[in-house]
């Protein structure tokens, strides 16, 4: 099988001997139809499947069709072959960086690169892997100071409005190595033993391998084992959550929005009608994009809620470009018959609905990227990338071999703040990553000798949103 990535097909190892095809079905679009004519019969004949229906499959599906959000969800989270389930490794730098004794940012970059090499060399001694997917988080880079700032914010707000009538209950969605959890609990134990006695920490982790790793790290030292009676690791998807939690709680969702599945919409430039994208996977495992004028209920609800919640707000969309420009562009010879794609965060909308219905007294703390460089073509489009021989490889389509590519989206915090408020009825505050940590971190802990501050200077393309 091959993966179409704009003009350069990428082959899986098992099929590297197959003849390279020159067509680019994932991004090509005919002038008069919405899909390649030679695949029409297959599109009619193949069954619709969902990511939920594919969870038990050990092999990547063929001869099926599914909505784009189901294709992305399956690619990232399938328990058998998904990116986060089987192929992703979170970088751990070992001992925390001594920022006060680092000269400047170039030296920090050099030390970080050195630690990366040492970390991966150690992994390769046990299990060499040219396709290992390795990435880092601010929690790991700025340990323990990043987690301490989050903890300081929660303790201050807990004592202001909830203590002593309620326990400090913390949920974390997607806890990675468990580092943030341990840093938060360490801080509370050291800073306020009275609050620590009332603290409970619950992790909701979709990946079985990461849930196991979190449990191992919790029990790895005497200090961390002291938190064991306060921690519960729940190995399930938040989208399968069925327990009603009426009591106040803090809900951490740090760098998870970017990997929530999105639907793709294109518009008919003449009628402004929205059309929803699906993916067909044929008998050879090749991917084809199809568009239908019938929207499924989830995508339809998203557009309705966004229209109502964001009335008067201007946000990037094919329909917010000049009507005159659209008319000129689409009347040019050989012009496409649909607009550029727009990726809509339908899974994020569903997450907000779960918070509203299952955690009505929650206080959300979330941080994610509001802008991503080198994204694929379209509005709110993702970055799609993999690693091969320790190098990052970018491709230009989300229709890629499932499990080996990170598919991450930017978050439009203006739109999401409006939609969160509309769905949950809660008020919010959005700020830059730097502003939040300048207020809640002890910034001298991450300041280098040059005066540069790594935790404030990095992640300029990230924002923080909190429930107030």
UniProtKB/TrEMBL annotation:
GO terms for molecular function: protein-arginine omega-N symmetric methyltransferase activity. Keywords: Methyltransferase, Mitochondrion, Transferase. It is found in: Mitochondrion. It comes from the Eukaryota. Its EC number is 2.1.1.320. It catalyses: L-arginyl-[protein] + 2 S-adenosyl-L-methionine = N(omega),N(omega)'-dimethyl-L-arginyl-[protein] + 2 S-adenosyl-L-homocysteine + 2 H(+). One of its GO terms (cellular component) is mitochondrion. It is an enzyme of class 2 (transferase). Its main location: mitochondrion. Residues 1-14 have a biased composition (Polar residues). It holds the Pfam family Methyltransf_28. One of its GO terms (biological process) is methylation. Residues 1-37 are annotated as: Disordered. Signal peptide: none annotated. Arginine methyltransferase involved in the assembly or stability of mitochondrial NADH:ubiquinone oxidoreductase complex (complex I). Belongs to the NDUFAF7 family. This is Protein arginine methyltransferase NDUFAF7. The lineage of its organism: Eukaryota, Fungi, Dikarya, Ascomycota, Pezizomycotina.
């Amino acid at each position: 099988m091959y993966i179409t990535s704009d003009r350069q097909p990428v082959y899986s190892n098992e099929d590297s001997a197959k003849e390279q095809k020159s067509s680019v079905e994932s991004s090509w679009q005919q002038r008069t139809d919405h899909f390649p004519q030679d695949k029409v019969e297959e599109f009619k004949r193949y069954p619709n499947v969902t990511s939920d229906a594919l969870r038990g499959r050990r092999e990547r599906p063929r001869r099926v069709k599914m909505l784009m959000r189901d294709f992305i969800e399956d690619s990232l989270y399938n328990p058998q072959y998904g990116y986060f389930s089987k192929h992703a490794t979170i970088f751990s730098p070992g001992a925390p960086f001594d920022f006060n004794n680092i000269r400047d940012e170039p030296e920090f970059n050099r030390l970080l690169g050195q630690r990366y090499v040492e970390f991966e060399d150690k992994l390769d001694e046990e299990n060499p892997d040219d396709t290992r997917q390795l990435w880092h988080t601010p929690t790991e880079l700025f340990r323990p100071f990043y987690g301490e700032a989050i903890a300081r914010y929660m303790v201050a707000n807990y004592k202001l409005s909830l203590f002593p009538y309620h326990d400090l209950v913390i949920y974390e969605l997607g806890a990675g190595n468990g580092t943030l959890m341990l840093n938060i609990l360490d801080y509370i134990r050291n800073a306020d033993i009275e609050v620590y006695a009332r603290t409970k920490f619950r992790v909701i982790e979709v990946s079985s391998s990461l849930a196991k790793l979190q449990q191992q790290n919790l029990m790895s030292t005497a200090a961390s084992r002291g938190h064991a009676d306060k921690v519960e690791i729940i190995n399930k998807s938040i989208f399968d959550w069925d327990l009603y939690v009426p009591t106040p709680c803090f809900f951490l969702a740090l760098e998870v929005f970017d990997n929530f599945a999105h639907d793709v919409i294109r518009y008919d430039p003449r009628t402004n009608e929205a059309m929803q994208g699906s993916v067909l996977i044929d008998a050879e495992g090749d991917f084809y994009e199809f568009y239908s004028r019938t929207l499924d209920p989830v995508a339809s609800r998203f557009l309705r809620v966004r229209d109502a919640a964001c009335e008067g707000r201007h946000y990037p969309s094919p329909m917010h470009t000049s009507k005159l420009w659209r008319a000129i562009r689409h009347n040019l010879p050989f012009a496409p018959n649909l607009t550029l794609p727009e990726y809509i965060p339908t899974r994020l909308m569903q997450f907000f609905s779960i918070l509203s219905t299952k955690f009505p007294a929650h206080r959300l703390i979330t941080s994610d990227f509001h802008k991503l460089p080198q994204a694929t073509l379209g509005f709110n489009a993702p970055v799609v990338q993999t690693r091969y021989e320790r190098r990052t490889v970018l491709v230009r389509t989300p229709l890629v071999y499932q499990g080996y590519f990170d598919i991450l989206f930017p978050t439009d915090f203006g739109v999401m703040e409006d939609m969160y408020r509309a769905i949950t009825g809660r008020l919010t505050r959005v700020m830059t990553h730097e502003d939040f940590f300048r207020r809640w971190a002890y910034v001298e802990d991450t300041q280098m000798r040059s005066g540069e501050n790594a935790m404030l200077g990095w992640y300029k393309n990230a924002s923080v949103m909190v429930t107030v």
